[in-house]
Amino acid sequence: MTPTVPNDEPVDLQRRATLGRVAGAFAAACLAPVLTAARAQAQFVEGTDYDRLPTALSKEAPGKIEVMEFFAYWCPHCNEFDPRLNEWATRQPSDVVLLHTPWAYQDSQVPYQRLFYILEELGREKELRARVFAAIHTDHIRMDTVDQQAAWAAKNGIDAQKFRQMSESFSVQTSVRRASQLAINANVSGVPTLMVEAKYVIGSRSDSLQVADFLIAQTRKQGGKKA
Q: Where are the domains positioned within the chain?
């Protein structure tokens, strides 16, 4: 016999149980992002998940929350990280700015720093960034010398002679030296490395973007800024 309620209308207990489970699952799904965010904020600890520089460096984008990526075109981890970083950047509000600094730990890698600044001065770095990574890591094109880079640049609409001239320009050489010094000041020992607000350094780790989100939120909280 089917159980009845006081007004004698039949009740489908199985349907009621199913609806209860659906409602519970829906509530859990709604709470999940909140709980996940709370756990994420609770788990990142200075000295363990990121480091604070003894003295903050000079920011390049005053008035913005600055995220600096130290990277290298030749680095396979940077190649894998770049699409994730770009997608993350598209989701940031207007008060966050993402900058890039090329890194080298030996002289043979300096040409890749120069390549970045030549493309940047030409206003083509952002457009050609993915192509540079693909040329090196997918097509296995050698880019160790100015001539190799100039040949590749010519295939991408850049005058090879102008490229060679720019590689020796004062502005490019100055930018390379500054980048190397900045990496030393930030205690960068590998790439990709993120630096938030010119003082918080996040080494290479799978959740570096989550740590960056945490530090950005902390920066807003300390400065009373809204996204």
A: 1-43, 52-223
